[in-house]
Batch of 4 targets.
Target 1
Amino acid sequence: MLTSSQKVFDVLEFLCANGPHKALEVSKALSLQKSSVHRFLNSLIEFGYVRKDDQTGLFSVTLKVVQLGAMVSSKIDMVETGRSYMRELVATFDQATVSFATFMDKQVLVLRREYPRNCVTRIDLSQQLPAYCTGLGKALLSTKSEEEIDEYIATVPRTAYTLHTLTDGERLKQDLLAAKEKGYAEDISEISDSLHCVAVPILTPHGGLWAISLSGHCSVIREYGVENIVKHLKKAVWDMTSGYSAAPVA
């Protein structure tokens, strides 16, 4: 038996696939009671996904549904588009790992990693990481307003993973503001001893937020040079987002 929430989505999917319809037509097409369909439609109207034309009695989906679909599609497309550029980066920096991530529930969600074949230091971290002590997380947080950064620092507990983890709120805030100004972020032995990560944020006009990073042993990153890494990361971001109206944060 279908739950009410499933039936709501059935109604929404019907309107997406078939265009504007009256409640009675939706009721007949989905074999649902008209009173139930009206209740589901009113819920969808309340949340902004459906509108009703009072003159014709037709219900149709709103632009919010289109925007939602575009946001989901862009996330999938962005990861797929970024794959070839990530591989180019690991070919250039052949002792490091390239990661691609987004922000979810105040944490870093790693969507993809690329490892070079001859990588000496293979990063073995979970797919969900704290934001405050990772280069990816700091890059993502650096795109936030100062008020949002303050709110994050005030509400997220901070554990010291190493002796170098920034757990002091004021020091972390200054680090994030510096990353905002530079256009890239770093963590040096904060999430794991001897691991250095350099990351660049990516913003899109419709609110998409990602970050790309290059990580490796501290000695390896020092040999490559942070400025050189940032230059390559920003070029990769620029190239991969040229068709998405997105750009690296300056």
Note: The mean pLDDT is 87.
Target 2
Amino acid sequence: MVIFGEQENAGIGIVGGLGPETSAKFSLDITNRIRKLTGANPNLIIDNVPMPEELEEDAILGDPSEKVFHLIKQSVLRLNKIGVRFIVLPCNTVHIFFDRLQKISKAPIINIIDETVSAAKRSGFQNIGLLATTGTINSRLYQKAFEGHNIRLILPNNTMQRKVSDIILITLKNSIIKKDTDDFHSILDKLFRDGAEAVILGCTDLQLLISQNNKIKLIDSMKVLEDRTIDFVKGVKDD
């Protein structure tokens, strides 16, 4: 097994803080999986972005600003200065800046949108729902990535989309109550009634609302990113 090839001591760079609980869970999941592979803890370098709540809320509700880009850019540059092997961004919405970030990063950045779309294509489903922040939906990150793949993307209506973003904001504040979880599952059910065979969780915070024993067909962008991170650790970079 190849672990990092010639750069076995180089770390995995994680741009954290874009959903603190999700960042922590991602780091813990990756640590546990790499321990099983290698018998040792991985070298994770987590750079938590000092994102003000108002900027975070603007991005989720549909208007990620240049200030958001600047904060993430500085994080990516810091990780490059440390000399990480590659970088992961456990947040779908900020991938609106992906091309600009990769341009200034010597280390490769795993693209969660492209990887999730690849996973959806491998699933064989032709009708797939999408739940994500309004920022992700409005930027058409997934819609563009699915073009030409003969897959119908099913989106929530405007009222449901606003509710999804509200639930994500509540999740970030660690203030979820049972009604929020019930509302989220009602929206999921509506997508399946509208013809979805599976639903993409296109926000990494949404996995916090899913129970471990759920039976619904989901393509979880968080799980996809974890899987591809492990592939990079093994030296497997292409499907």
Note: The chain has two domains: 12-111+223-234, 113-220.
Target 3
Amino acid sequence: MVGAGIGGLATGWELARRGHDVTILERSSSAFTGSSGSNAGILRSVVESEVLCELAARGARALIEPDPELAERSLVDPVGVLLIANEDAGAETLERMGAAARAAGTLYEIVDPTTALRALPHVGTPAKFALWSDREGTIDLDRLRDGLLAAIARRSGRLVFAANVASIETQDGAVRGVHLDRGPMIAADAVVLATGGWADGFARAAGSPLHFEARRRHAAIARPEGAGPDGVGAVVDPSWPVVWNHGDNFYSRPARGGLLVCNCDSTAVDPDGYDLDAAALESLGRAMQRHLRPPFDRAPLDPWCGVRTFAADGEFALGPDPLVAGLYWTAGLGGHGITCGLAAAAVVADAIEGRAETAFASLSPMRFSPTRS
């Protein structure tokens, strides 16, 4: 397993508890240092397609009612998730997405948007349609990470940090193992790439036909005017729900004495060479002015950025590589890795064991086979 973000740790644990001999290699000095550690930690299972709704619903259940080996209690603070749309077209799309989510077993209900927003004094935009879940909310990323690390260790899985994978060894079109930048080859019957923003480089190096793009996304804190970094003087209620404007892709949730805000900007970047972008932060500031009421600051505070990774068609890549036997992918998870990670791990493990579930066939990397018509 290459990578110790949510994809690598979840898949490593899933394989280890099925009896496989698992080694996880991570080039950083700790887990969750990439996108898994820089995201907003939101559980939102209403997503864009029916197949992802099914995967997200399974992932949500695994977080809300986790396996006792992973956590003793829920990994989710159910502050609620309110999804709103303020245009007719957006309302129709959101209603369709909600229906797909309910069909997958997710408990979202249609609510009156005016009534729902009346209790949220920070939301500055009206809405024509709203979906509400009182079971979803925010994910405790630290407990999720620590639970996965402990569960892998209990299953005798090995984690090697500061392990930079230099190349993947293949022979006659099949994986033989991986080479680190120093030391002998580590032999393996299967190699799973959960390398986040670096997936495209690994694909090229392995001779895979898959292509991925890392895209930068910014987030920041909107803090009431006059409130300090510790939140003193803040009017933010920590029990406020996640509010996601579907049409504008702007969301907020209580955090750090204010509101964590993001307008889901998406710009292709080199995963080894990106930083905060002034123009993107200006755009986020304008989005805050549209979506937040006073007394919140009109400039994003304490901003940060991370990357989300997408396959060429925007869908997940879960399963076997179409050209390199023994090479598997858990990649291209976009902005849904934390919600879907535990469920995606089972899909990849099933593929390795030769019993892939047909419900997720459209997410298989085999769709990128050069010989597929």
Note: The mean pLDDT is 93.
Target 4
Amino acid sequence: MACQPSNICRYIIKNKRSLILPDEAKSLGLIVSREVCPGSAVFVPLLVKSRVLGIFAVKSCLKGAYTPSDVAFLMQLAEHLAVGINNIKLFSEVRHREREWEDTFKAVTDAVVIVNTDHRIIRANEPARQIFQLGDSDTAEKKCYEVIHQKTAPCDTCPMQAGTTSMKRTYQFVEGADKEVYDVYGYPMFGRNGRVTGVFESYKNVTQQIAIESQLVQSEKLAAIGKLAAGVAHELNSPLTAILG
């Protein structure tokens, strides 16, 4: 039975070695058809760290067309091809992850900024741009405390400084330059050396929430005063009723 290309591929993938046809066919017990090998052929695996990415095949109608030096050259060429293909795959994966990151960054409804260790805003999503009125030049030249808080020096409760010191998630309750109140969560970002390279800051506007809570507290106070007044009135009315008969 003639050896089909799929069987040749399985053999090469399993053994991770090149195959010269028809020279090696007999020793391997393979019967190769003329469709697979019209005269002579060389099949070389594309290997990267012992992982087969594909198979590089060269065929000729002439028998004995490939010398040992030709085979050595084809193996070197296959090695370079494998590295190139692997780099393309890695680049595609990186681009895919970048797109996922961009989509996730844009999907966050709270204001989000990324600040480097120099306090410069290197990224800001659309809600942050609208709230803090950030232009393209602001995210490249100005510092976070200048744009967000309208100050000339880092804030006392700076998420960058707190995150760099603790290397953990931080929380601040701050009032912005727009007089709105925010819950600010800072998440340190680490480089390959384990050092903090920046902070991912999330600003959640809680101004309305605080106003509602304040109203509820005020309502509870008024209700308590009302109950107290009713109790006092009852205590006063009881003796007066007895006196007046």
Note: The chain has seven helices and eight strands.
